[in-house]
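Hi,

I'm pasting everything inline rather than attaching a file, because the server keeps stripping attachments. The sequence lines come first, and each chain or strand is labelled.
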Amino acid sequence: MSDITIRLLGASRWYGEILGINKINVDIPSGITGLVGPNGSGKSTLMNLICGLMQPDQGRVLVHGEDPWNNAELHRKIGYCTQSDKFFENFTGRQFMESMLRMHGRGEAWARHVAAEALDRLTLTDAANRCIRTYSKGMRQRVKVALALAHEPDVLILDEPFNGLDPVGRRELIRMFVEYGREGRTVLVSSHVLHEIEQMTDRILMMSNGYVMAEGAVREVRDQLRSHPFRVLVRCNAPRRLAARLLQEPHVHGAELDDDRSVTVVTNDPDSLYLKLNDVVLEEKLEPDLVTLADENVSSIFKYLAGREHH
Amino acid sequence: MLFRQIIATTRLSIRRLLFTRFMVANLLLAALPIIILVLIGISLHFHRMSGPDIGTLHRYLEQLLRMFYLHFIIFFVAIISGFAIVRQDLDDRTLHYLILVPVPRWAVIVAKFIAFWVVTAATLLASLWLTYIIAMLIVAGPAATVRDLFGNELWFVVLLRESGVLLLAMTVYGAIGMAAGSVFKSLVFAPILWVWESALPWLPMGLKRLTLTHYFHSLLPFPTTPASQRGAWSAIEIVGVPATMLECFVVLTIVTIIAVGVALLVFWWRECAYVEEAA
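And the predicted assembly:
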């Protein structure tokens, strides 16, 4: 595909013993791509690698065919709104923007003009001459977005850009990002809230535990996850009898007896398992006291998708 | 374009350095001799006492530069500023702003070094020259101060030479501060280095050459004061053979290049890893 802007080729990154991302192969085309996944799934690590803030331990990361690590010129084409809430606190919003934009080397007048324009787009003009330390969480978030957008980058990376914003602010930003994506630029935006991503794009990358679990349209992703095995822990008075009954179901791939009161059932269709479980409990007169997904991260992702079905 | 980028990065670094807590410490250190002189002046005035003659004052000022400035004020002000200018972005977790702009990393370090140099040179030169002027005004008055600077004694030239050594010392110590700021999280190393540098008068000749102050002293007139007139100061005079000017510049240049090189190398490989997001 010719419009692939960002390419990860077997990229892995570890923080000592802790996994950041593992062997990720993914192509991100122009337009908007949503990056969803629970906390600690590796979203920020992926974004930091794309923006050249970090290097992969293995594999390669390419943006417009170039390695972003120590590639100053490539940063003219990238705008990054990080999750970090750190600023030069004693600068005003305007001073902060102008100082950062001056470092593009395009002159004082350009920096002033572009900073004013970006602050205006993010409705920060009235607060532009106030110290950043006096800004609310939402205003700080908007300054970060303003800085990422100001130099009109071709690749816009947004890590949880809606944090701390009120509903009106969120709506306004979503409209802005959609417009940006329509111009043929590449926008990669992460969020905990799938609903927000869906307002911008149907194309998502789903991450868990440092892996890309699924990618594509939201519907396709849900289908891909259907084939992903879920582990459901059931604690009751007769786990062996329960396991024997559930193993007769086609969507149940296995059952492990943990002790004399609990069993872990492996299935690729938790919805059907829950329904069947109700029947078995009534028929066998079991007394369950716990039914839960054993894998917390998968549980979170499942909740995302379950939430999507309600909208 | 690169020149503009370095200027912009320098301006940003200067502005940020001026607002660090380290800067307050540096200003206090630089103001210390001035404060002491003003107190002496007030005391002389109230006790209707006359100060030393100009010749004695010159000797005191020379000793002040060698003992107080070289061994204490320049050392700490330069090390602290060099350390702070690299460390502030790491401590404040704002380093990503510098990495995400289209400025090569080597240029960021060069810009930071220039920023350090401008701020620290202004602070230390103001301190040195104000110390001289205030001391002369207290002892001899305005007319004698002007005569002393531009008359037969030509102390203007002496002050220029001493300012040059001051700037050289500041540059070398600042580069060491930057290297240390790239590697260490605290200034614990500074007192250790200071003890080593201050041990100069008592070190055997072979080891003297392993201190930086040996080379700074060698660049100043030697011996500064006839031995018979040194009195209590004799213990802290350089004892031994001074290094030649060429040796001084070679050694100090190598040390500076190595220190800036370390800062550059560490910054080149520096990552902004937000570990809390990792699983």
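Chain B touches chain A through 33 residues (CB under 8 Å).

If the labels don't parse on your end, tell me and I'll reformat.
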